[in-house]
Design goal:
The complex is a heterodimer of chains A (about 290) and B (about 200).
Chain A: H1 5-10, E1 15-20, H2 29-36, E2 44-47, H3 59-68, E3 73-78, H4 84-96, E4 101-105, H5 126-137, E5 154-159, H6 166-177, E6 182-187, H7 191-200, E7 208-212, H8 218-227, H9 235-243, H10 247-262, E8 268-271, H11 280-286
Chain B: E1 2-6, H1 9-15, E2 22-25, H2 30-33, H3 39-51, E3 56-60, H4 71-77, E4 86-89, H5 93-102, E5 107-109, E6 111-120, E7 123-129, H6 145-148, H7 175-185
Parallel strand pairs in B: 2-3, 2-4, 4-5
Antiparallel strand pairs in B: 1-6, 6-7
Classes of the chains: A alpha/beta (about 290), B alpha/beta (about 200).
């Protein structure tokens, strides 16, 4: 029986990860209840780090709450809010509390969120943060001093999936060279495009977990095509949503078909629904995934 | 060139609400070029302040407000500065600081200082350099990501750009696209594979 994410990444199991957001206050029962729906079906749960630059409870604290409930959290860590001192001290704290998986990313600019005037930090970028994690793993801090107890993180990073964007592919290569154990991607709607992306990055030999956001309406698809970087909902999927009397159900059908295709191409899927995970268990069973 | 923009008159009047007998110092370099502190702007400021019942004792236009030898050198330009109970500098923040360092009366600035930029082909170029003290611009084809990427990312773009436009300001090109195009043109795309260490902010 496999327990943690690292063991699962080393296995041949098709992985399911899912994204949960910490609360915007101190009451945490609602997101915890949401995470409970993933028990037995998600191999690990990503905890977002003030996503969209909107202030939430820390990913560290909520990851610990998930851990206490028996989940396998992946603590997301952005470069936006902390300098190298803050990032390291949170990583040490997370490790001491039992958090073993992290996923590093640049982070949206503060102007996108609810505190648009806050100071953007970006002391490190996501490549440098990956290097920092590996330093802590080797028992030394970023300044080169010995730690009184190091870390051993299973550390991932994120990527877009457009094979036509060489800069993104080069940055992905740098993240892998700096030690990324896995990659979670932007949402996939165009499986053909994802297949090309996988071909373009096959030399990196890193497990890729494909992102998935089930569509709920035509408006949502149009919004994402226009406003979310790296998302491309193909016309054919737009028509299916548009023509359906029940767009939510159709969105789940499309997502389950996408998962079936992705099973041939990626190491897993990463489900990031807009709203709750109410439909996630059903989506996975539609895709033929019934649990651990 | 230091890029400045003129503060609205109401803001300047608020700054000067308890002040009078004002001496104005313009700047004949960057601010003159940007029309935020050259002679016409200084004269217009005098008109506006007097219209709002402020007494302006005089004005001077040193070559650069940021390069003032001494208080005496200002007196030589216009001895009326001796009567000033307040000085308004129409230059950048550095000009205001320099004038404050040689004078004994309250000093105010009429501009907001935006960035170190330049101008070329009739266009104003903002945020060309952040004066980090550790220049590596050559590794990016002569386009500095520290100044022109709002996140200062050194190892490639974030995931936020749409159609080559910046996540933070959709009117601006993502500087990483510009860097890519430039390195492609000079056949140095190999530079994109360098893993850059973070910027050091140590004060030596």
């Amino acid at each position: 029986m496999l327990f943690n994410l690292r063991e699962k990444l080393n296995s041949s199991k098709f992985l399911v990860t899912a994204e949960v957001s910490p609360p915007r206050g101190t009451k945490f029962s609602v997101p915890l209840e949401d995470a409970r729906q993933l028990k037995g079906i998600a191999d690990a749960i990503n905890v977002t780090d003030n996503q969209c630059s909107i202030m939430h409870m820390s990913s560290l604290a909520f990851s610990k709450l998930l851990l206490d409930e028996g989940h396998e959290p992946i603590m997301q860590l952005t470069c936006r809010d902390r300098n190298r001192i803050g990032l390291q001290s949170d990583l040490l704290g997370a490790y001491a509390l039992g958090i073993r998986n992290i996923c590093v990313m640049t982070g949206d600019f503060p102007s996108c969120g609810d505190h648009p005037g806050s100071k953007p930090v970006y002391d490190l970028d996501s490549v440098q943060l990956m290097q920092l994690v590996r330093k802590l793993d080797s028992g030394i801090n970023f300044a080169g001093n010995n730690l009184d107890g190091g870390t051993s993180f299973c550390a991932g990073a994120v990527s877009g999936i457009d094979p036509e964007k060489p800069l993104q592919l080069i940055k992905l290569e740098k993240k892998v060279r700096c030690g990324a154990d896995f990659i979670q991607t932007q949402a996939v709607y165009d499986v053909g495009m994802f297949e090309e992306f996988m071909e373009a990055t096959s030399h990196l030999e890193v497990p890729v977990i494909a992102g998935l956001i089930p569509l709920k309406s035509l408006g949502m698809a149009e919004f994402m095509n226009k406003n979310i970087s790296g998302i491309h909902v193909p016309e054919e999927i737009m028509f299916r949503i548009k023509d359906s009397p029940d767009p939510v159900e159709e969105g789940l059908s499309i997502a389950s078909e996408t998962i079936k295709e992705l099973m041939k191409l990626s190491r897993g899927v990463h489900i990031m629904p807009v709203g709750s995970h109410k439909n996630t268990p059903r989506l996975l069973s539609m895709a033929g995934i019934s649990g651990k | 060139m230091i890029i400045t923009s003129a503060k609205p008159l109401e803001e300047i009047l608020t700054l000067l609400k308890d002040e009078d007998d004002i001496f104005i110092i313009g700047c004949n370099v960057c601010a003159a070029k940007l029309k935020t502190g050259g002679e016409p702007e200084v004269l217009e400021m005098i008109r506006q302040l007097e219209k709002n019942r402020k007494h302006v004792v005089g004005w001077a236009l040193p070559t650069a407000a940021c390069s003032v030898r001494s208080f005496d050198s200002l007196v030589q330009k216009n001895e009326k500065i001796n009567e000033a109970r307040c000085i308004l500098v129409m230059g950048c923040g550095s000009g205001v600081s320099t004038v404050a360092s040689v004078t004994e009366v309250p000093v105010f600035g009429s501009n907001d200082t935006l960035s170190l930029g330049g101008s070329s082909e009739g266009k104003l170029l903002s945020d060309q350099c952040i004066m980090c003290g550790k220049c590596t611009i050559g590794e990016f084809g002569g386009i500095c990501p520290k100044s022109r990427c709002p996140k200062g990312l050194l190892n490639g773009p974030c995931g936020g750009a749409i159609d080559g436009m910046c996540e933070v300001n959709r009117e601006n090109d993502c500087v990483w696209t510009l860097i890519y195009n430039r390195l492609n043109k000079i056949k140095r795309l190999d530079l994109l594979y360098t893993v850059h260490a973070p910027q050091e902010h140590r004060i030596d």
